[in-house]
Design a protein that fits this description.
By secondary structure, the protein is α/β, with parallel strands linked by helices. It has two domains: about 130 residues, no CATH class; about 280 residues, Aldolase class I (TIM Barrel, Alpha-Beta Barrel), CATH 3.20.20.70. About 30% of the residues lie in helices and about 20% in strands. The protein has twelve helices and 19 strands. The strands form four sheets. An eight-stranded parallel sheet has the order 18-17-16-15-11-10-9-19. It is globular. About 50% of the residues are buried.
Amino acid sequence: MTVLDEIPVGPEARVYAEGWQSWSPTTWSARGDEIHRPAEPWQHAMRFRPGVDVTDDALQGEGLLVVDPGDGSEARVFGTLDASREVPTIRASWRGDRVVVETDADAGGVSSRFAHSTTGADALAEFGDRFGAASGARFGWAAPRVWCTWYQYFEEVHASDVLENVRAIDAAGLDVDVVQIDDGWSLGTGEWTALNPRFGSLPDAVSAILDSGRRAGIWAAPFSVGANSSVAREHPDWVLGDAGKNWGDDLRGLDLTHPGVRDYLTRVFSDIRDLGIDYVKLDFLYSGALPGRRHDEDATPISAYRSGLELIREVLGDDAFLLGCGAPILPSVGLVDAMRVAGDTFHEGGEDGSQGLRGQMSVEARVWQHGRFWTNDPDCLVARPEFTLREEWADVVLAAPGIRGFSDRLAGLDARGRELVGQLLKETSV
């Protein structure tokens, strides 16, 4: 590691370390605060930066780290303005009355001259303006109002559930722009776009959404495949290394520079486009930036990842709305319209509150990215009474800028749930 700076700090000093992707822990930390680390190897692949060690004695930012000395002196920003091929890892450690900042990159690839701001928050905003402008960030429209299937139905969603809730949204007169069908409509990663027979007719569900005057949205995880999927078995030369675990399978990434993969993705997203869908939640995107040998030997993991997103944008068109999730943060700026800025609110079985407010920390830490990098997605409001933490989570979602999404069966909402949904949809976020 190359030492970039040694900064005198006071007892109120804080460090902001930007995580690698949507689900990576991101926050401001003071001396002695927990250093977030993966507990299991699969968590490293899915929540931290694959191929980069996470130290246990330093805070680690991927492309961006801010030191606020806490004594009234100027905050210092360490970061890059170009994330198109490489993203430096930057670490900060407390050593006596100083914070030492180091990087694995050539010192010329990291600058500390982005901001002259007294506070850390102002320094992040100034960096965001500069990085967003340099990367061609996409933002400036009213944030979508979205109904999503996920937290109500998970993978057991049916076309009939979509139809029921479209009718209920109409009957209630709710100001919903997008109806998004989440995971469960297809046979899974590596089987695109083979429909899950359990779901029913995807064309009928999409037609009902469009007939209601709304945009049709869909979930896809295009850069990940299961190790036992047909794609992985039939095309081993398309597949990169370990991308974690999900859906009862080991996950693998795809080589987005391989001509066969690019043809495959073109077919997948042409099918989606031809159904009339122009709002796509692209999930598990970190799999496209795994380290590994690629067909294009000159590609880096990051340039390969970006080439995959550029292909999807080309197929769907510039007017399509792309929402990234599980996506590398800095390398995605300019390529997606919105970004999930934290992990899922809860997983199946989490209605009882046992999983806590999983997204709160990163949602609040990444507020500054909204309107500078993209439209933030703080995740869905869950307003039904069965969610034990609905009031606490509603406070987080209602305070966060960005997409106004909710994910409940309309018929299952009580009076308080309807009130929370109404409050969410009335808010304007640009």
